[in-house]
Amino acid sequence: MILPGATLGVVGGGQLGRMFAIAAQRMGYRVAVLDPDPDSPAGRLAEFHLEADYADRQALDELARLCAAVTVEFENVPAESLERLARTRPVRPGAAAVAIAQDRIREKRFLAECGLTGVPFSVVRDRSELAVALARLGGSAVLKRARLGYDGKGQVRVRSFAEALAAFEGFGGEPCVLEKLCALQTEISVVLARGADGATVVYPAIENRHRRGILDTSLIPARAPRAVTRAAVDATVRIAGALDYVGVLAVEFFVSNGRLLVNEIAPRPHNSGHVTLDACVSSQFEQQVRALCGLPLGDPALLCPAVMTNLLGDLWALGAPRWEAILREPRAKLHLYGKRAARPGRKMGHFTCLGDTRDEASARAVKVWRILVRKAKAPRRSRPVQHAAARG
After folding, report:
1. What does pTM read for this prediction?
2. Under 8 Å CB-to-CB from 328, ≥6 apart: which residues?
3. Does the 120-180 domain belong in CATH 3.30.1490.20?
């Protein structure tokens, strides 16, 4: 075990790295961050901030020298960088697992090898494959760049060959996947932590709603049939085992016509898992620290139902939001990520509302959001997204 007092490394300095650093420091560890942004949220909190590219060999070697073990904040870290770090230090998750998750084509083939069903798709590498794929899938579809896509970026909904070709060319002709657009009943995610010894703990399934391709709200526990959530948990555990995974892993699922479809893997803490910071005995970030250090995993038990709402840069359109709308609510928790510049679509923070029931937590989140938006007079988002629990 790596015990408190040691220095832990994280590649990536955004909000996920910041929340990892907070969890690690609270447990008595020091933190070193590798990120090229001199003003990164995690870098400003860490004891050491290496301002360098993720592929910078000298910086990677310095990170390995400083740290007892290293983790990642996001999946687009070059696999070669993780392999270099792993020569001298434990790296969790490992490069092999991250490499699968950062390429949609490899990821979909891996999921099929696990015996799991996903959205019907075709691989697109050129114009002719695009035409065949669109004819095969028919109707509306979503073209997604195979690499470097997240939060709605790198994907376009298309309804004709002309639209699909324009999107493909807009991606620079890079390899893509074309996915059939399915009618969705709901979207859920499952977050788990797995240790080097194979010990695994799983959080209750989380129900998610998106706006413009970006996660908007997350409700725990999900309002989905028990058979569906059980199948999602089983599939996530199977994926983690097949990857020989160590760390925190999240898997996103669609529920369409009563069928569970795997969407994608996130080899790191997940945005929907932020709800565990306030709703569970041990948060996903504490689990990340524990798995990295070889400690026994924490208890993932749910303390009470909760709803998390993302705060995007759009909310700052007319100035800083008036946070008293959240702070006056005794069962609401505000989390801001320390980002200096607010831009449309940029995740600046989130708030979580707790309740004795899902209906209560959802109603409280809607109430807080309405007050916050009214005070901010935000023009781009006039009404909140409501979960089924809030609508009855």
Report:
1. 0.91
2. none
3. yes
